[in-house]
Known about the structure:
Chain A is 20% helix and 30% strand. Chain A is an alpha+beta fold. Chain B folds into four domains: 6-110, Sulfite Reductase Hemoprotein, domain 2, CATH 3.90.480; 134-291, Sulfite Reductase Hemoprotein, domain 1; 304-394, Sulfite Reductase Hemoprotein, domain 2, CATH 3.90.480; 409-562, Sulfite Reductase Hemoprotein, domain 1 (2-Layer Sandwich). Iron/sulfur cluster binds at residues 411-413, 417, 419-420, 452-454, 456-459 of chain B.
Amino acid sequence: MPRPFTPKVVTANALLEGDVIYLTTQGHWTRNHNEADLIEDPATAEIRLLEAQALAHEAVGPYLADATPGKDGPEPIHFREAFRTRGPSNYVHGKQEP
Amino acid sequence: MYAYSDFDRDFLAERNAQFRAQVERRIDGALTEDEFKPLRLMNGLYLQLHAYMLRVAIPYGTLSGGQMRQLAMIADRWDKGYGHFTTRQNIQYNWPALRDVPDMLDALGEVGMHAIQTSGNTIRNVTADHFAGAAAEEVADPRPVAELIRQWSTDHPEFQFLPRKFKVAVTGSAQDRAVTAAHDIGLRLVLRDSQLGATVLVGGGLGRTPMIGKVLTDFVALPDLLPYLEAVVAVYNLLGRRDNKYKARIKITVHENGIDEIRRLVDAEFVPRRAAFNGADMALYTKIAADFAAPDFITGTGDFAAHYADDPIFRSFIDTNVAPHRHPDYAILTVSLKAHGATPGDASSDQMRLLAELAETYAHDELRISHEQNVILPHLPKRHLRTVFDALSDAGLGTANIGLASDIIACPGMDYCALATARSIPVAQEIAVRFEELKLEHEVGPLKIKISGCINACGHHHVGHIGILGLDRAGVENYQITLGGDGGPDAVIGERAGPGFAYDEVVDAIERLVRAYLDIRENAQETFLDTYKRTGAAPFKAALYPETASPRTNQQADKAHAA
Ligand code: HEM
Ligand code: SF4
């Protein structure tokens, strides 16, 4: 039996600012994880990753990260991805900045 | 003060202009990331978790007040008003925007600084003791030797394609503050029959296969040093493994061939190499040494003794943060960047400006950055200690904790670093706050806690008396503790204590270790490390993993409760 597919989001860092971005269903980048396109199957994930790689003038190092549906949109699974949605824990910098 | 002569302003300006054009070409799409990445890394620009990071070199950790002021200006203008001093004697800016980096580099160039990273499998920048030229017990200032080696190795045609990168550290003191035993080559300057020379260690390193360097020779006289080093690097160049990146460092070469075989090969190689040197290197050494000459010391200590006698807070600060200077009327003052709860190694722009001003006004315009992530006024007249202490205290820089439990080395870990497997900064912050609350650290005395956020060991955890390594265990942060490591003259790699701890268990675990030490030490003079050496790991392991409540059983118990 094939292992169940863990849904993915495409994420990268923005070329100019270096901050964390996610690919939306429309093929734009968003700063919010919960606005990302949650991809439910491996074939689509590969296609969307290629699309992101073609946006090399906007994004650096796109990759697929595990995610899960939440009440306001996709949520990260791994703690590294959770930190990337916020910023560092020693200062209120990054995305958590008011 | 010595200034790098080959990175002169014209050269830096030209390099920066080149990089400015490369950034433009990346932004307009002419360069791909694959093409751009090596260019930005060469210029010290990394992409981390949340942003770019610019890493600026501080050769020999030595800075003038004017340079520190410029670092503060850069932090305010293009970053978030602070900088992070690292264990590699660099400063890192954590939030630059790509377009601003060329301007930052130009601003650095104005004060003779740069972010150029030596890269590739060559001899990398040579490091030296941060108390160089100031320490009372020093045999000789290691920086002229380090600089001689740097000039000899830069562009050395034979050594541009070594099996792997190669790092050299030099100490001029028996106390070895440069962690020489954890370098590919470590040099310890010694006098023999009043001739200056070096004990040569080879094959040390941290990272995924930590090893302590072994003594290759007790003594090489200074005029023989470069040919001897050339022989060592030549032997490594031929013998070092090129088939596997993880086995390519000289520590593996030494491990696989044995130190005796390496010594035999080096001794044979030395003879023709020595004959090829004509003494020009010694003329260069004399010239470099003059550039590193000490300032003109002033005599007298003013009312230092009275302040020391009258004010217990001042006295505690002096006893903890001051080291003996070679001149009796001077002090080496280490300013702690480890206020309890602060991020180890971070300084705000205001703090940087204050340090600059204090150095310019009172301390011969010299500052140092230590690999322990603190700032040093290496030549501070004792008569000014009181004034300097008051100014530092007002700016939140008066913490008296050098060498104590809260003077923790921590790498950036998963709060910044893209390679991290766990966080290290908040662990350091919480340990420091815990010891402050317990008011225990002065009673505990010398204790080095070092934390890395992954196996690369940038936080030197292997040589911490207590080392903490953050790992990712099945998607959860987990912290492995090592005990008994030592980065000093008798360097030792710490031993793993046992199973790791969850993020919210690790501070308690450290407290248990320290309390166990207080219980079993023979007297207040026996340090944590001495006690560990006397008793071995057993009592410490017992404190970490009490039978009734081992972390495993706790977790199982929790699960049982939840079920
Ligand atoms: C973007 C951030 C960083 C990256 C990507 C990085 C990467 C690495 C890597 C890959 C190694 C292992 C090299 C080897 O063993 O061959 C290493 C080692 C090391 N790094 Fe970092 N590092 C970073 C930040 C830092 C910082 C901030 C410090 C100082 C606080 C530091 C200090 C060190 C030290 C002391 C070693 C061990 C040296 C050795 O055994 O050769 N690094 N780093
Ligand atoms: S030890 Fe790992 S986590 Fe820490 S700075 Fe080095 S590479 Fe990053």
